[in-house]
Structure formats: structure tokens, C-alpha cells
Amino acid sequence: MTSSYQSVILVKRPADNIVPGETFAVKDEGPIPSAHDLEDGSVLFRTHYLSLDPGMRDWLNDDKSYMPPVGLGEVMRGFAGGTVQASRNDKFPVGSYVTGLVGWTEYKICQGDDLQKVEVTTSRGLVDALSAFGEPLLDAIPDRFTYTAISNTVACLVGFTSLTAYIGIIDVAKVKAGDVVVVSGAAGAVGSIAGQIAIIQGATVIGVAGSEEKCRWLKEELGFHQALNYKDPDFAKKFESATPDLIDVFYDNVGGEVLELALSRAKPFSRFAICGGISQVNTTKPVGPSNFMRIVYMRINVQGFLVFDHAKEFPRALKDLSQWVSEGKIKTKETIIRGSIEEAPNALRDVYRGVNTGKFLLEVCTPTEQAS
Ligand SMILES: NC(=O)c1ccc[n+]([C@@H]2O[C@H](COP(=O)([O-])OP(=O)(O)OC[C@H]3O[C@@H](n4cnc5c(N)ncnc54)[C@H](OP(=O)(O)O)[C@@H]3O)[C@@H](O)[C@H]2O)c1
């Protein structure tokens, strides 16, 4: 074990794409804390995994958003999973597996109330808690999310991909049997689960993703009825052919051209659940759909949502999700890269390059661990 530890801090707000060596810098934090540095109730957290989420790009802008921006010079905010190395909190004995909004740092002294204990079993590990099966700290979530009510604990929910998928499909879009549902960003963490939940509801599901391999995975492994590669030169034509009866529901993770295409194929009174807009977050000049008036002509119900606002639905959602997982109706996948904490900026940049299928994680290793 090295005697000092490192963090990654934000040093320059990116105008467009993240530039790893310019946007972020590695900071030497000095000696690793020990049990002597702990106060009553606190624990020493060691990071094993960092969650890489497209929504993190928004935190780099100096804008008013759903939560405050990360300050210049501050450790990059991020959801992490790790172990308790030293403890003065009975709830988290040494060796406990935990998750929380710890940030991009190798070690941190945390207060117990901002960590979630993970019960690791033979079938569920720490990775699962950061991926599809993460459960929020229900008690800490307000009924209604507001900018002023934000706490770091609430922000942990960015990692809870299954809940986001569930709320969007079940509570926002209200998908029912017979619906034609299109999911963009379909091979990602949220999209892959959203599509499977729509299939469970009896819908016909078309996924949109960025490679032939991802499309094959969606159809052959997850049971999507069709999957289309938006990088295919004939994508628009294929999208039209795939939706002869138009679309009842569009679950959108990417915005931009795919949203425009979906609007052009929307049924009257269709429902658009807007979960994210990955294609537009890395630019200072985001483009909206040029056919915006289709919303009027087709009387489309377009609903943006934040999973935080639906806390009251989480117990039902978690019950349904657990049942579907145990019945084998929902499959999950993770793309995990290994590297030191210095790799985190490259990894976040890669989220917007389509490197991942399913949930994207960085396994944080020391050089010795990497060599093994
Ligand atoms: N509303 C909420 O409460 C909430 C909560 C959590 C997440 N979200 C949002 O949900 C969306 C999905 O999140 P996630 O965690 O599941 O991410 P993700 O899909 O695991 O990761 C990003 C994927 O998006 C695709 N992508 C990247 N750039 C793109 C572009 N320019 N155009 C089209 N696709 C692009 C890439 O796959 P391809 O190979 O297919 O391009 C990439 O793998 C994000 O927009 C996120 O912000 C919303």
C-alpha cells in the first residue's frame, strides 16, 4: 500500500468535450488517513469502483441545473463503491462494502449517513450495487426534488439505472401491451433496462444504438424486437421502415437527430419520456428538433423527468424490479475498465464515445493491483 493517496479535481470548465489533461488534474492529498483521524460516527472509505454517468458532464457547467456545479479546484463529484478500511461507526464495521457520492478520490473520511451499505452475497456484488441494482437511501430522499433541497445523498441516484428506466417506462410513459416503443441510447445502462421493462409490459420494442454489435446484443440477448444502428447511413430510412404503424412511446436518452426522427414518426397522442440528451451535452450550441411543431400537430405528451421526483414510487419499483430479475426477465451487463484514479477523466470522456455496453465503471487499482 502506498502511503499517500490521490484525487482528481476539476480545474477548467470544458466548453465542449472534456479534455482529460486540461479539464481535470490529479492532486496528491498526502498521507492516507488512519483510524486515528476518525471522529465518532465516521469511517475511512477506500474506492474500488467509480460510476461513469453521462449526467456528470452537466455538473461541469457553471449553470443553474438540477444540482449545483462542481466548483473549480474541488474533487470531481461521482458515485463510487468501495470498502470501509477503518471505522468508528457500528453500522459500518471494517470490511463493509458501501456505495455513496464519494467523488473521484482513492480514500475519503465519510460520515455514515451519506453511505449505503451493500450486502454482498454469492449472487450480488459491489458492482451490482453500482449498476442496475443499486438501491437509494430511501429515508434521505424528499418527496419532491427541488434545487434547494438537493443533498449529495439524493444525487447518488444518478447511478440507479434500473429505477430511472422503471420510472420512465411505467410512471412517465405508462407503457402498455401493444404499444410500439422506441428507446434511444438502448445499449446503455438505462436504455437496456428500459427496453426490457417495456417488453415485460407487452410492448413491441425498437432499440437505437451506435454499433451493429450493440444492436445484435439488444436483439439476441435482451429480446428487443428490432434494433437500429444510428450510425448506419440508411438509418433514417430503416427507422421509417421499422415503424410502419408509427410510435406510441419514445424513451429518449440522446436527443438531437434521433429525437427529431422520432417526432417525425409519432402517433397522435403518443408519449415521449425525455430521460436525457447525451448527444447535446458536449456542445455550447445544442440543437433542438427542427420539427418541434409535430408536438402540436400530433398532440404529443412530452414529459421530461428526473428520477428523484418519484421517490414515493421507489418501493413499488424495487419490488417489481427484484421480481423481474429473479424471474430472469431482466438481464444486465457492465463494461468495466481497470486503472488508477488518473484514468477517471479519460473514462468519463469515453462515455460519450460509446465505449460501454450496459453500465460503465472504472475499477480503481493501484499499480501493483493492475499488474496482478
Ligand atoms: N432523468 C433522470 O433522472 C436520469 C437519471 C440517470 C440517467 N439519466 C440519463 O439517461 C441517459 C442514459 O444514461 P446511462 O447511464 O444509461 O448512459 P449510458 O447509455 O450507459 O452511456 C452513454 C451511451 O450513450 C451513447 N451515446 C454517446 N454519445 C452519443 C451521441 N452523440 N448520440 C447518441 N448516443 C450517444 C453511447 O452509446 P452508442 O454506442 O449507442 O452511441 C454511450 O455508450 C443519459 O442521458 C443520462 O443523463 C437520466
TrEMBL record:
This is Enoyl reductase (ER) domain-containing protein. It comes from Exophiala sideris. Keywords: Oxidoreductase. Residues 21-362 form the Enoyl reductase (ER) domain. Signal peptide: none annotated.
